[in-house]
Specification:
Elements: H1 3-11, H2 29-54, H3 74-95, H4 100-119, H5 125-145
Length: about 150
């Protein structure tokens, strides 16, 4: 294109489609990282659920304790953790698609897992803090850098 045509193109709204490629920064790796962490967090959650179902004496607090916030039965709480863990694993797998709906689902279920782990704190504090931290990292990764994987 000649110099005159380039100047005219700048003023008439001409758009150079070859130069307008989608810019994806290195931060998109955070989404993959968030997906992997979400899968690991879901596995941790599911393991905690299986422990609650099959070995209730493992936890710091005994069954039917007044310190349990939501559910007074560790067996029931184990099932809740197992179900949440499986859902978080599936949401983490869907996050690799990069679609908008998978990012929304990932944030919702990572937030839900964070709340479950916060309520789970009296049962096993260290495990709950680790899982809660992983959920917050996933939310940060998806919210701060998810826009870079937007579908076109």
């Amino acid at each position: 294109m000649s110099t005159v045509a380039q100047r005219g193109a700048q003023h008439t709204g001409y758009r150079d489609y070859e130069a307008d490629e989608r810019h994806v920064s290195s931060w998109t790796g955070w989404i993959d990282f968030g997906g992997v962490v979400m899968i690991l967090s879901g596995i941790f959650q599911a393991i905690a659920g299986l422990v609650g179902i099959f070995r209730q004496t493992f936890y710091v607090i005994s069954n039917d304790s007044s310190q349990l916030l939501v559910v007074n039965n560790i067996h029931t709480w184990g099932w809740i953790n197992l179900i949440v863990g499986v859902i978080v694993i599936l949401a983490g797998i869907s996050l690799f698609s990069g679609s908008t709906w998978s990012r929304i689902v990932a944030v919702i279920f990572a937030g839900g897992a964070a709340i479950v782990n916060l309520v789970n704190m009296p049962l096993y504090p260290l495990w709950s803090i680790i899982s809660l931290t992983l959920s917050v990292i996933v939310i940060y990764a998806v919210v701060a850098h998810g826009r870079e994987l937007r579908e076109e």
